[in-house]
Amino acid sequence: MASLPLGNSPSCSLACERRPISLLAGPLGQWDEGSWDRDKKPFGYSRKDVLLIGLGVTAIGIGLKSGLDFAGVDPLHAGNVVQLVLVLGLTIGWISTYIFRVSNKEMTYAQQIRDYESKVMEKRLEGLTEAELEALVEQVEEEKRRLGEQQVK
What is the pLDDT of residue 117? Predict the structure, then answer.
């Protein structure tokens, strides 16, 4: 059996996306001209961002300890306070982001379900004939008219 390019397995599901592989691309696709726009991620989702976050937390800890030392707090107590503040702050912050994502339904599983449902609907629409599409459009328009009449009442 001939091998398939990475990401194009024979067991691809409906949501599988097949795309050509550029021979000029490096391991992360950085040489593909269109990849920079396609690979833009929100802050916190790249190696550079993770390193910056780690350095920032470390700098905050060092700064807080130095500030407490400068204020005359015992170094042992200052270390304990810094550790307590950072661990509690990071834990509460992380948990709050999780609660925010759950309340807004932005979890990975929910997003995968939405993506799958939209792909299934696209596939079903592609399989409809012209007459079936026209009948569907007429049904949608009739439903809009009925809803509009109900809202007026």
Answer: 94
